[in-house]
Amino acid sequence: MQSWKYTEDYHMNNFDYFKPKGIEAARELIVSIPNAAFVAGGTNLIDLWKYNLTNPSALIDLNHTGNNITVQEIDSGVRLSAFATNASTAYHPLIENRYPLLAKAILAGASGQIRNMATNGGNLLQRTRCYYFYDPDSPCNKRNPGSGCPAIDGYNRMHAILGTSKHCIAVFPSDMCVALAALDARVNIAGQKSSRCVPFTDFHRLPEDTPELDNTLGHGEIITSIDLPHKGFASNYSYLKIRDRNSYAFALVSVATGLELEGSIIKDARIALGGVAHKPWRIREAEDFLREKQATEKTFESAAAIILSGAQGFKFNKFKIELAKRAIVRNAAMALNPSIQKPGAQPS
Amino acid sequence: MTQDNNAVGKPLSRLEGKAKVTGEAAYAGDYQVPNLLYGYVVNSTITKGKIVSIDVSDAKSYNGVIAIFTHENRPDYASLDLKHADMDAPPGKVFKPLQNGDIKFHGQPIALVVATDFETARYASTLVKIKYEEQPFETDLEKNLGRAREPKKGLATALKPPPPKPKGDFEKAYEQSPFKVSTEFIHGTEHHNPIELFATTVVYEGDGKLTIYDKTQGTVNNQVYVANVFGLHYKDVRVLAPYVGGAFGSGLRPQYQLFLCAMAALELKRNVRLTLERKQMFSFSHRPQAHQILKFSADKEGMVTGLSHAAIGETSLYEDNIEIVSSWSNRLYPAENTHFEYKLVPLCLHSPIDMRAPGGSTGMHAIECTMDELAFKLNVDPLEFRLRNYAEMDPESEKPFTSKALRECYIKGAEKFGWHQRNPIPGSMSKGNKLIGYGMASGIWDAYQFPARVEASISSQGKLLISNATTDIGTGTLTVMTQIAADEFGLSIQDVSFVYGDSKQPFSMFQGGSAITASTGVAIVVAAKALKKKLIKKVKALANSPFHVFQDDAIVFRGGKMMVKHEPSVSISLEEIIVANKGRAIKTTNMGKPHLLKLRKYSKATHSAAFVEVEIDRELKTINVTRAVTAVAAGKIINPKTARSQILGSMVWSLSKALREETILDSTLGKYMNPNLAEYHIPVHADVHDFDVVFVEEKDELINELGVKGVGEIGLIAMPAAITNAIFHATGKRIYKLPIHFDELLKDRIA
C-alpha cells in the first residue's frame, strides 16, 4: 500500500545493479567492485539483506549470462545449469527418470514458491539457518569471526553432530546437495585463469578455524553448472527427511540413499546425510563395507555405525546420533522398495 | 412474544468474507490518509540495564526524517500509573514506553523514528547509536522456581480470582488412597502471532482530536487509554477496528505501537502510521512459561479422592499477569480433599498477556494427562474413568450448572471417533511400521458475559440498524450479531445492518474470554425488545390505529411488518411506521447485562471432549495426528459454520501447542531466538489431517436471554492433552513437556 517515490536524495542502503551478458563480464564486475554480490534466485540473499546480515554495494545479476539450458545430456552424463531453478530441474524428465533421488531431494526442500525462484547454483551457496547466525545482535563466529559461538552452549537442536569445531557447530541446510553428494556430482566453476571442476564432496567444507567460509568457492569464481555421472540409482533410491513439521522446515536429519543390487547382494551403495554437519556427510568406508554384502537390516546398521562414528552431540541434539542411525536403516529399506515411499520424503 | 426464527442456527457464511478474500477490507495499517508520516520503532538489544547514551544526530539529520522520540525528548504524558492502566491491566506498574532509560526486557521499544516514508524511517533507525550499561538478568522460569511468590491483587483479580481454598485433608487422603499419581509438567513460551501485524494509523483531526485505526480487540479500551495517557477528552478520541486479522488475546491491551503513534501524531500535529514487523511481534505479549505439580488420588472403586494442583507461572518485572491454571480440576471431578496453588516468578521479559484459552489450556493439559495416568493405574478405560467421576453439580462451588451436556460430548464424541475400538494396552495397536494411539481428554471453560450497550433503530428506509463498539476479530461476530438481530425482528439478513468496530458506538468490553456473543448478543435482544415496544406504542398512538385494541403480546414483527399474531391482516410495515413518524428514525439504546443475582446460585461453564488418533513411526518416532474429534457443549450455537471454524481453528492450534509451537528462549542471551514464522513452527497443511467437530445440544434457559456460552476458547482446552495421552497409548511413554519433540520417544533405546 506504500506509494514509492524515488529521488536523488534517496540513498539509504543504495546499491548498483548490473545485468552482465556473459559469465566473463560478470566475473570482471565482481572483482572490480568492492562488496558486490552475485544474485540469481535471491531467495537467501534477500532474507540475509532484510535481516541486516549483508549489505552489498552492488548486485550482479547472473540470470542473463546465457547458459540457461536447464538440463542437458553430455558425454559423461547429464549437466544441470547453475542458473536453472530448483523446480524446473526437479520436474525435468531427464532428472525424474534417471536421477529420481535428486528430484525427490529437491522437492523435499523449502516451499513450491521458493523452489520456483531458487537456482541450482544458489542452492549450493545458501547459508546456515542457525538462529544465532541470523540474529545480528548475537555473537557468531560465522558472521563475525572471533565473536564466539553461543550455539555450542545454547539452543542447538538443529545443529551439527559431525565435523564440528570449537568455533562453529552450524549445519548446511540444503536437501538438494545431499542427493548431489550421494550421486558423485561435480561442480563446474569459472575462475579468473581457467575453469575448474570440483568433486561435490570437496565443494563444501568443515568449519575448522574459519567457520566464516562455507565452501571452497573463491572470490571472483562462479558456479556455471553441475555434472551428474551416468549412474543415477534410478531403480533403488530414497530420500528421507526428518524434521519438526511435515513441510517447510529444515531437516534435523536427512538421508539420500542409492543402491545397486544383484538379487539381494549390494553391488554399489551411496549414503549421504543432511542436517548433521557443515556439509553433506558421506563416508566412503561405509559404502565400501556395504559392497558385496547382503542387503539386510543388520548390514545397514553396521554401515550406519561407521557413518556416525565420531559423532558428538550437544545438549539439545544428542538424539540426532541415534536418529541418524535409524534413518539410514529405514531409508535403505525404502530404497529397496521405492514403491512404498510416500510423497514429501516422509518415513514409510 | 414469538418470532420467526429463521437466521439463528443457520450455517451462514461470513458477511464480510468476500471483502476479506478480495483485499477490499482495510486493516489498521492500510488506511490511506493524506500527508501521512511513517514511524519505525527502535528496540533494545539488551535484556536488562540502562541506556547510557542515545545519539540520534545522524538519524535526525537524515533526509526525510521528521522527528525522533526517545526517553530524553519525549513529550510529557500522564505520570500516574492509573492513567496508563487499561481495562485488562493486571496488578503492578503498567509499562510506559520511553518513560526513562531503564531496560526491563529484550526488545523494549526505546525510540521512535518518524519520517516521510516507511523505508526512510526504517533506515534511519539503523543510524541511532545507543550505549547501554548491562545488568545481570534472569529469564528462565525453570532456573528461578525458588523465587515463586503469591501474585499481587488488583482490579483484575475480580475476573481472575485466586485458586479455591483447600477442602478436607489432602495430604492424608493422598497418603491413604490405594491409587495415586504425582506429575510435573513444563510448558514453554508461545507468542500470539496473528497474521496481521500490529499497526496503528492516527489521523490528527486538529484541536487535540484523534481518529485512530488500530489493531485491537477493544475499541473502547484503547480509546479510554489514549485519552487518559495524553490528557485528552475521551470524546475527542475515536478508535476504529472494523477488521482484525486475528489477535488471540494480544489485542486485549493497547500495545506500544498505539502509544507511540498517538504520541507522535499529537506532538507533530500530523497523521502518522506505525506498523510493527514480524520480529517486533515477539516484543510484547506471550503465553507464559509454566511449571505445574499435580497429585491426584483415587479409591479402589475408581472414584477420585484427592486433587492437588500447584502452578508456577512467569511474569514481567513490572506487572503480575495472572492466569487461571490450577483452579479447574475440582470443577470437573468431585473430590473431598483438595489443594490448589498459583504463584508467579518475575523475570526480565515483557508482560505475558492472555492467549487463547489462557491458563485453561495450560492447566487442563496437566490435569487431563494426570487423569489419564490415574485411569491407567486403576486399569480403567480413560473415558469410563471420566464418566465414573462425572459431576452433575459443580463440586468446587457445590452449585448446579446452568447447563452441562459434557456427558453427551463424551458419548457423541466417542461414537463419532470409534473409541470402542481402542485396545487398552499401550503399544498394542499398529498399522505396518506405525504404532497407533488413541487418547481422549475433557475440556472446561468459563461462560462469561460482560455488560454491553446496543443502539437499535429503524432507519428512515425502514431497515433495522444495530450498533455496538465490539470488534470482530475474525470469529464471525458481524454475521452472528446480524443473525440475532434479524430474528428478533423477523427480518431477512439483508434488511439488518450491524455497525461495530468503532468506539463511538455504544459500549462493549474488549473481545475476549469467549464472551462477546453472550455480551453484545444479549444487549441486541434487550434493545430489540425495547425498540419493538416503542414501535408498538407509536403505532397504537396513531389516529384510528387498528392495533390499540390488541395487547402488546399479541403483536409480532415479521417480514418487515408489525402485525397481530392471529389476525395478520392487521399490519403495518416498518416503512409505514417511519412515514407516520414523519420520516424520522425511531431508536433506543439499552444495556444488556448478566443476571448476577440469579446466576449467583449457579455455576456456568462450557465443556468439551476431545478424541485423538496418533500414528508414530516404530523406529524413527515421528508423530502424526491422523484423526481428531472434538465434541462441544456451549449452549445454543447461533451459526454452526462460524462456530465450527472456531473449534477447527482451535484444534489446529491444539496440534500446534502439543507438537509444534515454541518460542525458543536463550536464557544466557536473555532473548527469544526464533522471532519469525519460518523458525516459529505452526502447523502446515501436511500436518493437519482428518479433524471433525460435534456440537451437542445444550439448552440453557438460565445463563442469558439467548442461551449462548461462546466457543472461542473451548476447542483448545481438551485436545493438547488428548494428543499427549494418545502418544502414551501408542508408545507407553509419558511426555511431561510441551511442545512434545518426537525425539523424546527415541530415548528409550539410547544406551
Tell me what the structure shows:
The complex is a heterodimer of chains A (348) and B (751). Among the domains of chain A are: 2-64, Uridine Diphospho-n-acetylenolpyruvylglucosamine Reductase, domain 2; 236-345, 2-Layer Sandwich (Enolase-like, domain 1). Chain A is built from 13 helices and 12 strands. Chain A has helices spanning 23-32, 45-50, 86-90, 93-98, 100-107, 112-117, 120-125, 131-134, 176-182, 200-203, 284-290, 297-307, 319-336; strands at residues 16-18, 36-39, 58-61, 71-74, 77-81, 186-190, 195-199, 222-229, 236-242, 253-262, 265-274, 281-282. In chain A, strand 4 and strand 5 (77-81) form a beta hairpin. The longest helix of chain A is centred in the last third of the chain and has 18 residues, at 319-336. By secondary structure, chain B is α+β, with helices and mostly antiparallel strands. Chain B contains 17 helices and 31 strands. In chain B, helix 6 (219-230) packs across helix 7 (256-268), helix 9 packs parallel to helix 17 and helix 16 (640-659) crosses helix 17 (719-731). In chain B, 56% of the residues are buried. The A-B interface holds A 1-2, 5, 9-10, 12-13, 52, 129, 131-132, 135, 137-138, 150, 153-155, 157, 242, 244-249, 252, 318-319, 322-323, 326-327, 329-330, 344, 346-347 and B 29-30, 32, 45, 62-64, 117-120, 123-124, 126, 433, 617, 619-620, 622, 624, 660, 664, 666, 668-669, 671, 673-674, 678-679, 681, 683-687, 741, 743, 746-747, 749-750.
How does the SSE layout of this entry go?
The complex is a heterodimer of chains A (348) and B (751).
Chain A: E1 16-18, H1 23-32, E2 36-39, H2 45-50, E3 58-61, E4 71-74, E5 77-81, H3 86-90, H4 93-98, H5 100-107, H6 112-117, H7 120-125, H8 131-134, H9 176-182, E6 186-190, E7 195-199, H10 200-203, E8 222-229, E9 236-242, E10 253-262, E11 265-274, E12 281-282, H11 284-290, H12 297-307, H13 319-336
Parallel strand pairs in A: 1-3, 2-3
Antiparallel strand pairs in A: 4-5, 5-8, 6-7, 6-8, 9-10, 10-11, 11-12
Chain B: H1 17-21, E1 36-43, E2 49-55, H2 57-61, E3 65-70, H3 81-84, E4 102-103, E5 109-115, H4 118-125, E6 129-134, H5 170-176, E7 179-187, E8 199-206, E9 209-214, H6 219-230, E10 237-240, H7 256-268, E11 271-275, E12 290-298, E13 304-315, H8 329-332, E14 337-346, H9 360-378, H10 382-388, E15 393-394, E16 399-400, H11 406-417, E17 429-431, E18 434-446, E19 452-458, E20 464-467, H12 477-489, E21 496-499, H13 516-540, E22 555-558, E23 561-564, E24 567-573, H14 574-580, E25 586-592, H15 596-599, E26 605-617, E27 623-633, H16 640-659, E28 665-666, E29 671-672, E30 690-695, H17 719-731, E31 737-738
Parallel strand pairs in B: 1-11, 7-31, 9-10, 13-14, 20-21, 27-30
Antiparallel strand pairs in B: 1-5, 2-4, 2-6, 3-5, 7-12, 8-9, 8-11, 12-13, 15-16, 17-18, 18-26, 19-20, 19-25, 22-23, 23-24, 26-27, 28-29
Helix pairs in contact in B: 6-7, 9-17, 12-13, 16-17
Organism (chain B): Pseudochryseolinea flava
Protein name (chain B): Xanthine dehydrogenase family protein molybdopterin-binding subunit
GO molecular function, one term (chain B): oxidoreductase activity
